[in-house]
Specification:
This protein is mainly α. It is about 85% helix and about 0% strand. It is built from five helices and no strands. The longest helix is centred in the C-terminal third of the chain and has 32 residues.
Amino acid sequence: MTDNIYEALRESHEIQRSLCRKLLRAKPAGDDRQALFTALRIELAAHAAAEERFLYAPMLMDDMGLDSSRHALAEHHTMDEMVEKLQSLETSGDAWLEHAKKLSEKVHHHLREEEKKFFQVSGKILTDTQKHRLALRYRRDYARMQKKLEAA
């Protein structure tokens, strides 16, 4: 049982970091910026849905995980709102790039906090068997959500 929920989540975290970096370097003209933003939007949404179901929900059931789960859920909500704002702006504009930078900062902050704090708290609550099972369920739901969001 080598695979666990944290390895599964870190894979998506690395994709998010990479997409944020590429997005901020993309030229305003052309389709790169829009394609990268779409990829990031789908990645964030698929990851958040599966993570909330298969890490946050079990953590909410334990008193020790309550505060950190609520905080993480609030940050997901904030990022959703930031993505919505970006969708309403023209990708070639300065305002869009400014909001994209803020989203990137929020994503990086959230991932850092999750990996440094949340994983440690949840690691004390979940058994090794639970971590393995949650990884399988997370990966399955993450893939399903990606397909659903790409088709939308």
